[in-house]
Amino acid sequence: MNDRRNDTRAPVPRDKTNDHTHDAARMRREFLTARTGLPLDHVGSYSFDPGVTAGNIENFIGAAQVPIGLAGPLRINGEHVSEDVYVPLATTEGTLVASYNRGMRILTEAGGVKTTIHERFMQRAPVFHFNDARGARSFAQWIDGNPDGIRAAAETTSSVAKLSHIERYSVGPMLHLRFNYETGDAAGQNMCGKATLAACEWIAANHPGGARYTLSGAMDTDKKHSQLNVLHSRGARVIAEAWIPSSLLKERAGVDAATLFRARLNSFAGSVMAGSANNGMHAANGLAALFIACGQDAANIAESHTAITFVRLEDDGETYYWSITLPALIVATFGGGTQLPTQGECLDILGCRGKGKVGRFIEICAATVLAGEISLASAVVAGDWVESHDRLGRNR
């Protein structure tokens, strides 16, 4: 038997002087080629200077070229965007762009999507440890009495992060604190971690007798769905809603409002039985395609796809009110992957690159999700869902 423990470890090559260069990337590709025999021609084909990836990736070897399609126009009647937009979607799933495009046409012909952002916070949730529950209760009272000192300590770490409020949850001899920050145009997870560390250090130095803590007690739910996010929000809580004439649904999607409404009751029951984080159709599809195209942290889909669909019949069944609430949409228009060349261009298509644009991007994301809900739900009810995938979604 071959004992792999005796194999010599071959570390990935690095250039200690400057590891984000064409030469450094080529060195690693050649290392891989020597070990695998693969030429890596496509991985090594990219149009930007590797220097721009510093801070975004380590051991850079090339780029994943995901196809980008364009859907639209989508009319949005929001508070940050009030116009028709064209939406770039990066995906490898056939029918996705076509489906979202159909939903956008229906929404636009219905007068557009109304979008509303209720709140937007990013969290870090440390847990403080005590000998007993009374110690935790006394500490909670001390926290309530010292908001200014805690806020000042947290905000020394950033010119952007602003501490809004602190939730507290007790369990046994512990107190979980959930710090909520406004983070400007950044998503803010790292920003909030740094700010909360400073706040916890101030608390430990100023609380009588000190305080022992763990910086994350898991109630911040980083990149994990949670019911806490549904109730208290994480990232943006945004709602997209539309009033769609039944006649338009029948003309464009082959199904009327009353039939869609009955189908919604059925799918709602199924979502409850499944314990789904989303009682709608497929918010993750549109959001993932937008995230990849526009330089978002793709892992945030785990939280961002959570959604609550609410519908009703109006005007004696002639109008279908359709809304979707995204309680944990985590996006940015500044920092992170948004500064990369391809991703920056896609944000430019949307008019969303840079500071002061995150509200616009949030509303576009929500409106895009609603377009996808309308198209897929109609396709399922009308019976052309499988046929569409068979026609558009197969490599022939």
Automatic annotation (TrEMBL):
Ranges for region Disordered: 1-23
Stored Pfam families: HMG-CoA_red (PF00368)
Entries under SUPFAM superfamilies matching the protein: NAD-binding domain of HMG-CoA reductase, Substrate-binding domain of HMG-CoA reductase
Superkingdom of this protein's organism: Bacteria
UniProt xrefs under InterPro entries: HMG_CoA_Rdtase (IPR002202), HMG_CoA_Rdtase_cat_sf (IPR023074), HMG_CoA_Rdtase_eu_arc (IPR004554), HMG_CoA_Rdtase_NAD(P)-bd_sf (IPR009023), HMG_CoA_Rdtase_sub-bd_dom_sf (IPR009029)
EC number: 1.1.1.34
PROSITE patterns to which the protein is assigned, alphabetical: HMG_COA_REDUCTASE_4
Keywords: NADP, Oxidoreductase
PANTHER family reported for this sequence: 3-HYDROXY-3-METHYLGLUTARYL-COENZYME A REDUCTASE
Family designation: Belongs to the HMG-CoA reductase family.
Protein name: hydroxymethylglutaryl-CoA reductase (NADPH)
Source organism of the structure: Glycocaulis abyssi
Lineage: Bacteria, Pseudomonadati, Pseudomonadota, Alphaproteobacteria, Maricaulales
